[in-house]
Amino acid sequence: MCADPKVLEGLSWFACYLTTPKHFQFYLSFLTVLALIFITAPFTLLLGFAGALATRSRFLPLRWIGTAYTSMVRGVPDIVFFLFVPIALDQVLEYARHRVLCPEVTDPVYRGNDFVVCAIAKLPLNSAPQWTHEIYGFALAIVAFSVVFGAFAANTIHGALSAVPREQLETARAFGLNERQTFRRIHLPQMWVYALPGLSNVWMILIKATPLLFLLGITDIVYWARELGGTKTSFFEYPHSDWRLWYFLVLLVFYLGLTSVSEKVFAALRRRVSRGQAVIGEIAEALR
């Protein structure tokens, strides 16, 4: 039916137009965005905990590292780190491979504005299939997003750990719990009550930042919406006027739906971790 688009009209034309290979890539790009979010979130939380605990550490050098990480990353525009982290990490890996795999090459890798390593040190190799390059770029994007939003999560978790009433921790120690048991059984569970509102904001900002994927060379939903929605002349199989408004309207609905579901999930999580908190508050109010 779609062999000759010029003879199609109405719904048949749209059915064939919306099932072209490029449109299927557009549909798959939604999965790319979702994969980025759900893979990045655990690493963001892990870096957040590491940064928060480092900031609270009694070991001064570790505390300096934690403070520098949270302060520096939060104080620099996100787009700078989204561009810096993948480039820096890629060059570090290629430089290390260059030194190991090509010890006979003595020329400097930095030659003016160029970064030149031997062919077998490239990541990925030039002979590697296209999917390898895409996965490698996607992995670098995950690292960049995790580093940036891990700093915001670290600041949130640090504040939540500090917000837990000290009396509860002292009571746990009075009952014979050591520092590790107190942290695992009392401090950490109570912390979630104060951390979830801030972490929900970090999650929302992470969702809103996914359109920046195109800066890292990844063909995301914004790229395809602009590419497919632009004016197509008679040289194309399916000529049409500027339809970018409709494509970006689809993205608007997608992001609004994703944030709406996220709000409901975080609301349910807050109710779950707050069980018993309201009862304690009511008892305290009654005692007054």
What's the structural blueprint in terms of helices and strands?
Elements: H1 10-17, H2 21-55, H3 60-75, H4 78-101, E1 110-111, E2 114-115, H5 130-163, H6 166-174, H7 179-209, H8 221-229, H9 244-273, H10 277-287
Antiparallel strand pairs: 1-2
Care to give the gist of this entry?
The protein is mainly alpha-helical. The protein has ten helices and two strands.
What does this molecule look like?
By secondary structure, the protein is mostly helical. The protein has a single domain, classed as MetI-like fold (Orthogonal Bundle). The protein is 72% helix and 1% strand. It is built from ten helices and two strands; from the N terminus they run H-H-H-H-E-E-H-H-H-H-H-H. A two-stranded antiparallel ribbon has the order 1-2. Strand 1 and strand 2 form a beta hairpin. The radius of gyration is 25 Å and the shape is flat. The chain starts with 9 loop residues before the first helix and ends with a helix.
